[in-house]
Design goal:
The protein is α/β, with parallel strands linked by helices. The chain has eleven helices and four strands.
Length: about 240
């Protein structure tokens, strides 16, 4: 490796800082990329792979803090052999190759970090989708209220509300809520209740129209407003 290239890679190393801490696996990947020497080669006793084995041992011990026993488990050596390798290795005269391995190992660590971050973002995005799917649908309940038998209509509306809840929905029935404080017999109060009810439609997923007792004028007004917002209308019956 010529000096100019070494200087260029040293500059690149500085630009990468603070780089993610590489691991022993990254060192092994780097050696394979740099010299086509695999972990199996490093575990062999062939003398041609001895320099790379000593480089891997040095980086694992001095850069990563691995013990001789830990290094030995990876390279299939006993701790005495690893200690002897560290003692015999002259790192100062081999700094170019060591930094070359460090550079490639940092790149491998960066790729691993990028993959982890991408996987985390993908997991979070999927979690958000799952959370949205698990949220109950917001549903506007339409059923009769005014008429000859208001009490029967109220009982029916309560059954509609319960039916929606059993379906796993989050229902809203304005004619059961607002009529507790507004008098439906007075036109202006009835109109006020309907206007306020319509404001809920913008936050709904769809409208459920229960038709066992017919469709009233108020229900038709609600259905018309729903269509103007592009809401789906589901017609239902309780078979009373």
């Amino acid at each position: 490796m010529n000096k100019n290239r070494f200087d260029d890679e040293q500059a690149l190393l500085r630009r990468l800082e603070p780089a993610p801490n590489f691991m022993f696996a990254d060192v092994l990947k780097a050696i394979k990329e740099v010299a086509n020497v695999t972990p199996r080669h490093l575990q062999s006793y062939a003398r041609e792979y001895l320099p790379w084995r000593r480089r891997a041992t040095h980086l694992a011990h001095n850069d990563l803090g691995y013990s001789c026993t830990q290094i030995g488990k990876v390279l299939d050596r006993d701790h005495t052999s690893v200690r002897y390798s560290l003692k015999k290795y002259d790192a100062e005269s081999d700094v170019i190759e060591l930094d070359r391995i460090r550079l490639v190992a940092k790149r491998a660590a960066q790729r691993r970090l990028n993959d982890m971050q991408a996987a985390q973002k993908d997991f979070e995005a999927q979690a958000e989708v799952r959370a949205v799917r698990q949220q109950p649908a917001t549903v506007i309940i339409e059923s009769p209220y005014a008429g000859r038998d208001v009490e029967a209509n109220v009982r029916y509306a309560r059954r509609c509300l319960k039916d929606s809840l059993i379906r796993g929905e989050s229902p809203f029935a304005s004619h059961l809520l607002y009529t507790q404080v507004l008098d439906d017999n007075y036109k202006h109060e009835r109109q006020l209740g309907m206007q306020r009810a319509f404001s809920w439609y913008a936050n709904a997923d769809y409208v459920a129209v229960y038709t066992d007792r017919g469709i009233s004028n108020g229900m038709r007004a609600g259905m018309s407003h729903a269509r103007s917002l592009g809401l789906k209308i589901h017609k239902r019956q309780l078979d009373i």
